[in-house]
Amino acid sequence: MAKASWVVVNPGSGSGNASVAVSSDSEYTGRTARSSSITVSAANCEDCVIAVNQAGKPEFVENTSDTATCPKAGATVTITGTSNSTALTFSIGAQGNTLELEAPETYNVGGTDIDNGDPITGDPGANSEYTWSVAFVIPLNDTISEKSGQVIVTDHAGNTDTCTITQAAGDPRLSVDTDTINLTYQGTAVSFNVSSNTSWTIS
Length: 203
Description:
With 203 residues, the protein is mostly beta strands.
């Protein structure tokens, strides 16, 4: 087996006694261990072959950002991150959420939509970390308060990461359904309707 490109030896040659360091060219992000070998050769000598094994990275999931924002008018907010898991599950935090969020039906890995919680086609995390993304459609904020909600990402091993989406407060509004009220001489009450998302008074 020829030396894999990820195996780095230093020095690559020498004379006499020496110490040789063996490393990888970068952090390995795949879950599954990988193997190669190096061969030490000299003229008129039998080759010495050394196996080189690199452990896989423990399963992980992370967001590129722990927070995301949405304008008051609403928008599609996309959260992205990296993982090497066989499957990801997306859920909505149960406490303190004021933003209307629902767990997504699918998420995206490498241009392929994967059903929430299902194994990822081709298991790309076995050999390298991959980038995932998930989109949330957030409607208009019709309140005068900021809203927020948490999206929890869980990998197959049970590791979790959380992103908090915050939506800006909406504009105050006030309207009535008439501009004239006519009372009879008896003074019987006539009603009108107020439509508002904020406190109001009548004077």
